[in-house]
Write a structure and sequence with these properties.
The chain has 513 residues and is an all-beta fold. The chain is built from 1 helix and 34 strands. Strands 9, 10, 11, 12, 13 and 14 form a 6-stranded antiparallel sheet that branches. A 5-stranded mixed sheet has the order 4-3-2-1-21. The longest helix has 7 residues. It binds 2,5-dideoxy-2,5-imino-D-mannitol. It comes from Salix viminalis.
C-alpha cells in the first residue's frame, strides 16, 4: 500500500510483507549470520506463527530464505513459537523452541539442520520424539515458554532456562539439565524469581567480562565474569535486566543490587522494544543483541499497509566497567558500511557541554514533561524526523536536574507526543536516568530510519527505541534541529552526521511457500 510506503525502513530488518514479532535462534555458521523470526505468512496481525528465516554476511544486508519451520505437527500446530540455538563443540546445532500444541499447551521441542554443510541451513528437521519437555507439575500449561541457548556446567552437561510464573504474580525462570538435548531433568529450585513481576517471556541469560572489550561464549564463567539475566515482562511488555552473579554449584543467580532486580530495575530499552535475544558471535568474539520493535498504530492501519514490525539494528553488548551497574549497547560496527543516503536515514553523534550561567536550584522534572517544559538545566538535544514548520517532530534530549543532595542527576528522554499528526497512534514520552560521570560530556548517538529512531546515551548505557509515524516529515521533507530549552545553562554542541544508504534486502530466488 503506497499510502504508508514512507514508513518502511531502509536499513532495519523487516519482512517483505505481513506480521513479524520476536527474533529467534540467532547464530553464525560458515560465514553467515542467521536470523529466524516469529512470522505470520497470511496476514499483518499475529497468528499462524511460523519461523521466517534470513541470512546476512554483515548483519545489515539480508537475504530472505524459505521458512525454516511451519506449524505442522500436533506439538506445534498452534504456533512455532520462540526459541534459541546452541552450537555444540562438535559443530552440531541444536534449536530448542516452544510449540503451542493442538490443545494449546506450551511444550519445548527440538529441531536441527538437515545438512550442516549447507551454509544457508535451509532445511530443518523436527526431532521425531518431540516434545522434549512438557510443563512440570505446578506450572500452568500456558505459562512455560521460550527456552534459552544452553550453557555447559562444570560437570560437562548442558543447562537451559525457561521463563514461567508462580502463584499468579511471581516471575521466574526454571533450569533444566541435559546431556543430549533429547532428555531433560528439571533442577530443584529456580535460577531466579522476583515477586510481582508476572510471567517472564523470552528469558535471556549470558556472561559478560568485567574487564574486557570482547563478548563471551554462553558457557564462559568464573572469576572475571558477571551474568546478565533478562526477562520480557508479559504484563508490561517491557524488557528488563539485571547484572549479577551465577553460582555454578547451585545453578542460582543473585543480582548485585536487589533493589534493581530483574523487572523492578533497569530496562534493556526504554522505548518501543520487546522479546530481545542475544547470541555469541564466534567470528568476531562479540555478543550481539536483537530486539523487536512493535507497532503503535492500529491493527486496521497495519492491515492497510500490509506489514507490521521491524527488528532493531543488532547491538553489541558489553559490561560497563566505568559504572559497574549497567550493560552497554552499541550498534554493530558493520552499520558504518552504509554511506551517503538521504536525511531520513541518518547516524548522528552529538556531544553537549553545559556551562552554568545562573545559580542552580533544585528541580524535580524527569522525562514526563516531555521536551516542552523548560527548566534550569534542560532539556537540550535534537529534534529528529521534523518538518520545516515543526508541526511534526520527535525530541531526543537530556534533562539534568539538581537533586536535594546537591548532586546532578541526568534524564535521557524521547518525546513522541508531537511525532505525528495522525491521531490513531499511541504517542508516549519515554526515558530514564542515565549515569553521566564527572569527566564526561553529555553524548548521544541516534539511528534514524524513516519511522524508527534508536537513541543511545553515554556510549550505550541507556537506549530508547521510538516508533513514529510522520505524515509530513517524510523523505526530503524531514529535517534535523538542535535545541536548548534550558533557562540556566548555555549548551555547546558538537555534531557528526552520517547519511546512511539503504541496505537492500534480497528475496530468495525461489518461492517461499
Ligand atoms: N511471542 C512468542 C512467545 C513469546 C512471545 C509467540 C513474546 O513464544 O513468549 O509469538 O513476544
Amino acid at each position: 500500500n503506497a499510502m504508508f510506503s514512507w514508513q518502511r525502513t531502509a536499513y532495519h530488518f523487516q519482512p517483505q510483507k505481513n506480521w513479524m514479532n520476536d527474533p529467534d535462534g540467532p547464530l553464525f555458521h560458515k560465514g553467515w549470520y542467521h536470523l529466524f523470526y516469529q512470522y505470520n505468512p497470511d496476514s499483518a496481525v499475529w497468528g499462524n506463527i511460523t519461523w521466517g528465516h534470513a541470512v546476512s554476511t554483515d548483519l545489515i544486508h539480508w537475504l530472505y530464505l524459505p521458512f525454516a519451520m511451519i506449524p505442522d505437527r500436533w506439538y506445534d500446530i498452534n504456533g512455532v513459537w520462540t526459541g534459541s540455538a546452541t552450537l555444540l563443540p562438535d559443530g552440531r546445532i541444536m534449536m530448542l523452541y516452544t510449540g503451542s500444541t493442538n490443545e494449546s499447551i506450551q511444550v519445548q521441542n527440538l529441531a536441527y539442520p538437515a545438512n550442516l554443510s549447507d551454509p544457508l541451513l535451509i532445511d530443518w528437521v523436527k526431532y521425531p520424539d518431540n516434545p522434549v519437555i512438557v510443563p512440570p507439575n505446578g506450572t500452568e500449561t500456558d505459562e512455560f515458554r521460550d527456552p534459552t541457548t544452553a550453557w555447559m556446567g562444570p560437570d560437562g552437561t548442558w543447562r537451559i532456562t525457561i521463563g514461567s510464573r508462580y502463584n499468579k504474580s511471581v516471575g521466574l525462570s526454571l533450569v533444566y539439565q541435559t546431556s543430549n538435548f533429547t532428555t531433560y531433568d528439571l533442577l530443584e529450585g529456580v535460577l531466579h524469581a522476583v515477586p510481582g513481576t508476572g510471567m517472564w517471556e523470552c528469558v535471556d541469560f549470558y556472561p559478560v567480562a568485567i574487564n574486557g572489550s570482547t563478548g563471551l561464549d554462553s558457557s564462559a564463567n568464573g572469576p572475571g565474569t558477571k551474568h546478565v539475566l533478562k526477562a520480557s515482562l508479559d504484563d508490561t511488555k517491557r524488557d528488563h535486566y539485571a547484572i549479577g552473579v551465577y553460582d555454578l554449584a547451585t545453578d542460582k543467580w543473585t543480582p548485585d543490587n536487589p533493589k534493581e532486580d530483574v523487572g523492578i530495575g533497569l530496562q534493556v530499552d526504554y522505548g518501543r522494544y520487546y522479546a530481545s535475544k542475544t547470541f555469541y558471535d564466534q567470528s568476531k568474539q562479540r555478543r550481539v543483541l536483537w530486539g523487536w520493535i512493535n507497532e503503535t498504530d492500529t491493527e486496521t492501519d497495519d492491515l492497510a499497509k500490509g506489514w507490521a514490525s521491524v527488528q532493531t539494528i543488532p547491538r553489541e553488548v558489553l559490561y560497563d566497567n566505568k559504572t559497574g551497574t549497567n550493560i552497554l549497547q552499541w550498534p554493530v560496527e558493520e552499520i558504518e558500511s552504509l554511506s551517503i543516503g538521504q536525511a531520513t536515514q541518518l547516524d548522528i553523534f552529538a556531544e553537549f557541554e553545559i556551562e552554568m550561567v545562573s545559580e542552580t536550584k533544585h528541580e524535580k522534572y524527569g522525562c514526563s514533561g516531555g521536551a516542552v517544559d523548560r527548566s534550569h538545566l534542560g532539556p537540550f538535544g535534537l529534534l529528529v524526523i521534523a518538518d520545516q514548520t515543526l508541526s511534526e517532530l520527535t525530541p531526543i534530549f537530556f534533562r539534568p536536574v539538581n537533586t536535594t543532595e546537591g548532586t546532578v542527576e541526568t534524564y535521557f528522554c524521547a518525546d513522541e507526543t508531537r511525532s505525528s499528526e495522525a491521531s490513531d497512534v499511541y504517542k508516549q514520552v519515554y526515558g530514564s536516568t542515565v549515569p553521566v560521570l564527572t569527566d564526561e560530556k553529555f553524548q548521544m548517538r541516534l539511528l534514524v530510519d524513516h519511522s524508527i529512531v534508536e537513541s543511545f546515551a553515554q556510549g550505550g548505557r541507556r537506549v530508547i527505541t521510538s516508533r513514529v509515524y510522520p505524515t509530513k516529515a517524510i523523505y526530503g521533507d524531514a529535517r534535523l534541529f538542535l535545541f536548548n530549552n534550558a533557562t540556566g545553562v548555555k549548551v555547546k554542541a558538537t555534531l557528526k552526521i552520517w547519511d546512511l544508504n539503504s541496505a537492500f534486502i534480497h528475496p530468495f530466488p525461489f518461492d517461499q511457500n
